[in-house]
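Worked example 3. Consider a protein that binds C2E.
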Amino acid sequence: MLLPLISMTAIGWIRWFCILVVLFQSIAAAAFTYAISSSDTALDRVLRYDVAWSGAGGRLEMARLQKDVARFALTGDPADAKQARLSYQILLGRMRTWNAGAFHKLLDTSPRLRALFDELFLKIEALENDLNILENLEPEALKVVLADLGSASEPLSRIGTSAYSTSLTQAESIRDTLRERQFIQHVLIAGLFVTGIALLVLTTIQNRSLTRANQRLRDNGERFAFLASHDGLTDLPNRTAFDLALNASLERLHSDDVRIAVLAIDLDGFKAINDTLGHGSGDALLISVANRLSAEVSSWNPRNVVARFGGDEFMVLLHLSGNEDQVVARANQLRQSLRVPHTVPAGTVIIDASMGWSLSGKNDDENTRLQLNADLALNQAKLSGRGSIVAFGPEMRAIITHRNQIDADLSEAIKTGGIVPFYQLQVELGTGRIIGVEALARWRRATGEWISPGEFIPIAESTGQIVEIGRLMLEAACRDARSFPLNVPVSVNISVVQLMRDDIVSVVSDLLAATGLPSHRLRLEVTESAVMADVERALEALSRLKALGVSISLDDFGTGYSSLAYLRSFAWDELKIDRSFVQGIGNDPHSLAIVKTVVALACELEISVVAEGIESHPQHQLLHEAGCMIGQGYLYSKPVPLAELDAAFGRLVSRIAGWRASNGHRQGAALRCLR
Ligand code: C2E
Ligand code: CA
Ligand code: CA
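Given these inputs, the predicted complex is written out as structure tokens:
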């Protein structure tokens, strides 16, 4: 994770450096252009200011003119006169060029030079007439012309020399400028060269970094793609990948002449292993299970697939040549392979699995539901007990349809007040005193039919509707309890879904405040499985509820895994012995022994014990003799609506009086434990 960050930072720096280099190169290029253009200017000046040559030219032309006039004086030849006139015109032209352009500028640099030239120019112009009539001049006049030329030659020479020296000085300064510019040009070229190489090196480094980053991106992309279709813990294909594989196999079903079976697998008691041995061992077990399943199914057919759908839920796709018997045989093989002990960090674990399966047939519609059907069969397998292998049957779908119907109707019932509490009395076995009432939810459908909570509570728990139902029940029970005879307390069942919510304590305290029921008259019943879902969180919530003044009861005691351990982990006010023990108490000595042990233990821990589901007088007697203080069951009263509670009270009081009169009343063995 850190590496890409570092290289990203490096790439950032390189980019900034490149920008700086490019900036430098732009400035250097501008300076270079300037240096070249200023060299051009200097060269231009060299050409423009080359007055030395023009000065020397003037001096030569004057000398030639003097020579031509002298020759004519000697020969008197008209051709020599003509030659002298031509030389004069050349010299006159030279003088005119001296009076313009660069030479003109030079003359203007010194007033003395200017005056000298002006005088010279007038002198030379004045000779024009004499030269035009050279052949006609007297020898004396010719001497004068030669003398004039001689006198003009001297200032002309001075001007020429001056031009030459000025030109030399200027040439020197121009040379200096050019040298300076050349130096700058060399420096700039070297700079451009070095930065160019630096740029090349940096681009190479950047390219390498980008290539590496690209490689990492590709690797990550492949990993992401793998994770998107695989389970992170076991590396098995996940639900999405399984769906794809199943669809592909379904498409080739008829052409391949194979049958496909889907097997849904759930590990039995995995949660308990996870809770007791820790998540590290839980994970190790899942990996071991995944490896065994993979090894088995791929050895049968390479197209077979094992997927993990989450938790301890696995799904297997099998390609078979046989029929139902082959599926059962394969399922048993898998089960046997899983039952071989697994080594995990905490030790050795033995595990069993429940399986549901469905097999493709002629009906294409049915084939598309193979996975769903396997799931339904797995549900049935889990209900049938550990290690069951169950085939899908159409009746299972009816159960789901019924469930969906209940789910839909329940929403309506919650809104329209169709869910109401019925109340069942709790009796002190020794005295027959009515000491409490349990609120039990009832659903009255629009048709008038009553639906038992055993049917709708599990569905409401799975859909989350239990939260609203639980709130309704709490509110109704707290409100109704204010008018209960003898101000007895009311017990309300709390589902695991409610207990795990952050707002459970505020919901209870708000309802107590809203209904005005004193908190000591409310008892909340939670089951062992609710606590087991997340022991720490559950016990924390229960402690905060208890702090409100509410008492807490452990319901269905004896039906969970490690009941006795939970007794010590919290200051329970009450525990309720499950009906299954009470039912067996008359004819099964084990049930009686268990009840006696639990009662004795609860006495030690100062927890009062309620026996549930007492239906007969002998059960009442046995429980009382076993030391159990409180009973609840049809023997005393069935759950009744609020309107019939007073009557149920009255009936029970007179019945107890009757029993006392006919039987006498035997003292319970553990009366000292009465709450
Ligand atoms: P539970 O809390 O163990 O309630 C006792 C169950 O035993 C009640 O069933 C009650 O009617 C039944 N019962 C009581 N005495 C006898 C008897 O002598 N013989 C027989 N055969 N049965 C007896 P019910 O009302 O059908 O409730 C079933 C379960 O539904 C409850 O078991 C409780 O776990 C759950 N439940 C009921 N109301 C609520 C509720 O408001 N919220 C939650 N979360 N669960 C509820
Ligand atoms: Ca209960
Ligand atoms: Ca119970």
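Take a moment to read the result before moving on. The two ends are 62 Å apart (CA to CA). Residues 1-6, 666-675 have pLDDT under 50 and may be disordered.
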